[in-house]
């Protein structure tokens, strides 16, 4: 078994260019994610997967400075880049993190890693609720090579880009109750029906609000409850 | 060409069951949504699509109060509810209107409707190719929903599938710097503290925001946030 933390990020996002290197709590957002990922125990490595575009050179520099692996692949096809990263490092399992989700809960990620080590045969591992409700920005989950292989097989049958997109989305969203999903109970950390904010960052003003929340806290949050508490306090509730 | 808006609304959202009833500037979120859609010019009908469950009866009453139609359908199949609303109201084109977008700009909606009326025959008319939650809107050719239903395409994927569709009529692009600099925040309602933040903004502004620029103004000025 070879289990990595896999961070996907690129600078050329259409809606908010350079989002992942925008400053969050005094550091580029991607660096905050790397720093948090480095606190995870029982993983075999951390890799930042990005594109070959010149605009993403800075991400490679940040990965290098922080002593983690990096991989550069297709800018056009996220799926290709994803799979090539797995091949490059011969991974069997990965805990995935998105470059725009710096507030993933460290304890939830750690529980998912533990479960992957204990039961390696599932396709995906996640803190799904029975309702299928995830908090935006908390898509941190585990995936196995079996899922990747099934994806590649389905991908080859696609005729156009629209089909590829659909295939990719479906492969990553197995229905709740599917026996290939390993549910990791994290309801004590983040009760799905009681969560109060989304924690990914899509827009510049969301980042501004989160910066104020971090400033209010005085430290970069490692737990969901910390960022929720700070958010609640800055909107004076 | 008959164009209608289908507002999707039900009480029991898994993550936050009370979302549509949450107070937003003195009225429930869904009422703010309906209020906005009834101001839109160029629509032939507005339909509130809900379920026949007892907890959704208040939504039917709300539709009655605003003089709009309603249909009922299965709670867990949004695609089918859109399909039934379109079929029952004989719509040639329809606008999927999420019940948690209370700040959608009327001018944006009207611009897309006008594009559809002036350029018939496309499968989709989108304000922007990629969505900006709470603001981006599209007019869909009813033939598309028939096809999606036939193929079992998940409603969540409609927007993604159309991204590369050559039959889509796209009015604007994120590469337009003015547009990118205008839409700086997500304006849908998904979580309780988002509503709290929006209420704080409404209180600060002293009025219910009509356009996106009001939010940017408030975010920029509210130093205590």
Structure, briefly:
The complex is a heterodimer of chains A (237) and B (225). Chain A has 237 residues and is an alpha/beta fold. Chain A has helices at 29-37, 57-65, 78-89, 106-118, 145-156, 161-171, 204-217, 224-234; strands at 3-8, 23-24, 27-28, 45-51, 69-73, 93-98, 124-126, 141-144, 181-183.
Task: Walk me through what this model shows.
The complex is a heterodimer of chains A (237) and B (225). Chain A has 237 residues and is α/β, with parallel strands linked by helices. Helices cover 38% and strands 16% of the residues of chain A. Chain A has 8 helices and 9 strands. Chain A has a 7-stranded mixed sheet with strand order 5-4-1-6-8-7-9, sandwiched between helices. Chain A has a two-stranded antiparallel ribbon with strand order 2-3. The longest helix of chain A is centred in the last third of the chain and has 14 residues. Chain A is globular, with a radius of gyration of 17 Å. By secondary structure, chain B is of the alpha/beta class. Helix content of chain B is 39%, strand content 19%. Chain B contains 9 helices and 9 strands. Chain B has a 7-stranded mixed sheet with strand order 5-4-1-6-8-7-9, sandwiched between helices. In chain B, strands 2-3 form a two-stranded antiparallel sheet. In chain B, helix 3 crosses helix 5. The longest helix of chain B is centred in the C-terminal third of the chain and has 14 residues. Chain B is globular, with a radius of gyration of 17 Å. The termini of chain B are far apart. The interface between A and B is large, with 37 and 37 residues.
């Amino acid at each position: 078994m070879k289990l990595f933390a896999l961070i996907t990020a690129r600078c050329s996002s259409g809606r908010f260019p350079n989002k992942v290197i925008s400053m969050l709590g005094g550091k580029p957002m991607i660096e905050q994610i790397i720093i948090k990922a480095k606190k995870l125990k029982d993983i075999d490595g951390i890799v930042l997967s990005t594109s070959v575009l010149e605009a993403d050179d800075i991400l490679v520099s940040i990965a290098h400075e922080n002593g983690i692996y990096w991989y550069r692949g297709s800018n056009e096809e996220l799926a290709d880049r994803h799979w090539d990263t797995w091949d490059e490092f011969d991974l069997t399992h990965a805990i995935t993190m998105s470059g725009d989700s710096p507030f993933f809960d460290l304890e939830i990620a750690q529980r998912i890693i533990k479960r992957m080590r204990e039961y390696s045969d599932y396709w995906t591992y996640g803190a799904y609720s029975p309702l299928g409700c995830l908090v935006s920005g908390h898509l941190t989950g585990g995936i196995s090579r079996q899922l990747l292989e099934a994806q590649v097989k389905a991908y080859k049958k696609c005729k156009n880009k629209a089909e590829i997109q659909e295939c990719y989305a479906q492969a990553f969203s197995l229905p709740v109750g599917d026996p290939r999903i390993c549910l990791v109970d994290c309801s004590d950390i983040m009760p799905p029906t009681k969560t109060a904010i989304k924690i990914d960052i899509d827009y510049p003003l969301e980042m501004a609000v989160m910066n104020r929340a971090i400033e209010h806290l005085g430290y970069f949050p490692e737990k969901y409850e910390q960022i929720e508490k700070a958010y609640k306090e800055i909107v004076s509730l | 060409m008959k164009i209608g808006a289908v507002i999707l609304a039900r009480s029991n959202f898994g993550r936050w069951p009370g979302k549509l009833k949450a107070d937003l500037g003195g009225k429930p979120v869904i009422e703010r949504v309906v209020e906005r859609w009834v101001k839109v010019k160029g629509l032939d009908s507005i339909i509130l699509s809900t379920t026949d469950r007892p907890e959704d009866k208040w939504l039917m009453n709300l539709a009655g109060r605003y003089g709009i139609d309603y249909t009922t359908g299965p709670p867990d199949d949004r695609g089918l509810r859109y399909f039934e609303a379109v079929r029952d109201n004989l719509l040639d084109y329809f606008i999927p209107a999420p019940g948690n977008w209370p700040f959608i700009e009327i001018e944006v909606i009207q611009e897309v409707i006008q594009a559809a009326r002036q350029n018939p025959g496309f499968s989709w008319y989108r304000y922007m190719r990629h969505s900006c939650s709470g603001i981006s809107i599209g007019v869909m050719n009813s033939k598309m929903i028939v096809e999606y239903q036939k193929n079992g395409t998940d409603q969540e994927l409609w927007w993604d599938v159309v991204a590369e569709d050559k039959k889509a009529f796209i009015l604007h692009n994120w590469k337009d710097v003015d547009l990118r600099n205008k839409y700086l925040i997500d304006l849908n309602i998904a979580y309780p503290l988002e509503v709290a933040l929006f209420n704080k903004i409404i209180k600060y502004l002293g009025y219910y925001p009509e356009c996106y620029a009001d939010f940017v103004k408030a975010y920029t000025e509210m130093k205590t946030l």
